[in-house]
Design a protein that fits this description.
Elements: H1 6-27, E1 31-33, E2 36-38, H2 43-62, H3 66-75, H4 94-106, H5 116-124, H6 138-149, H7 153-163, H8 172-190, H9 196-221
Antiparallel strand pairs: 1-2
Helix pairs in contact: 1-3, 2-3, 2-6, 2-7, 3-5, 3-6, 4-5, 5-6, 6-9, 8-9
């Protein structure tokens, strides 16, 4: 990852402070790393790192404003609580909460103030798994793409396997069943990309997931045919 400027370091610090405490609450247990408590897995921070890395890749390819894109990547889930929005009828306000936090987080940093509205716009429009039409402007479209790409491919699989036991009992059969069901959603996600590089990357990541779950199904249900 690129060397952070002051605003990037501030964004990462603010994010990690929030996600670490929320992950400790979510898991209810921890490991001691040095003298600090570390949760078994800080999903939100790891997800955000993946999104930032994808932003560093995609932004230059399509000519996006990197200040706007990377700031939105760091902060798009900065107020999202693990487990929120999963209850029936529960409203998901994390995009609005994050957008409202942006100005305060960036205060007294070297982030260009005139770019804050563009960051907020991107964050407010990143929620969901499919689109009816392409997003604009470019930075908003890119945040959508990199957030959704993080839900596909090998990295997404690691994140799923690490966080899933926090919500339910994890067994090989359940992982296989959930994976089969997820592939339909993953297809919709891959079809929702805005930019050509993201479309190509989404297709490759979707192919990997299909291959992985196909192999898992073969090994688990029909080991004699593998």
């Amino acid at each position: 990852m690129t060397n952070p400027t002051q605003w990037q370091a501030t964004c990462e610090s603010e994010l990690q402070s929030f996600t670490r405490q929320d992950a400790l609450r979510f898991w209810g247990t921890w490991h001691m790393v040095g003298e600090a408590k570390a949760p078994p897995f800080d999903y939100r921070y790891e997800h955000t790192l993946a999104v930032v890395k994808l932003g560093e890749w995609l932004g230059p390819l399509v000519g996006a404003d990197m200040d706007v894109l990377l700031c939105a990547a760091w902060l798009h889930d900065c107020r999202k609580i693990l487990g929120s929005g999963k209850s029936k009828g529960e409203k998901d306000s994390h995009a609005l909460d994050a957008a409202e936090a942006v100005a305060g987080i960036l205060e007294c940093t070297d982030f260009p103030p005139h770019k804050i509205p563009a960051v907020r716009h991107a964050i407010l429009n990143h929620v969901g798994l499919s689109l009816d039409k392409p997003l604009n402007p470019l930075e908003t479209a890119c945040l959508w793409d990199i957030d959704k790409l993080s839900k596909l491919g090998a990295t997404s699989l690691v994140h799923f396997l690490c966080i899933n036991p926090g919500f339910q009992e994890a067994t090989t059969s359940k992982v296989l069943k959930m994976g089969d069901e997820w592939l339909n959603t993953a297809q919709r996600i891959a079809s929702s990309m805005n930019t050509p590089p993201a479309k190509a990357e989404a297709a490759a990541r979707l192919d990997f997931l299909r291959s992985f779950y196909g192999r898992l199904k073969c090994e688990w249900e029909h080991p004699e045919t593998k």
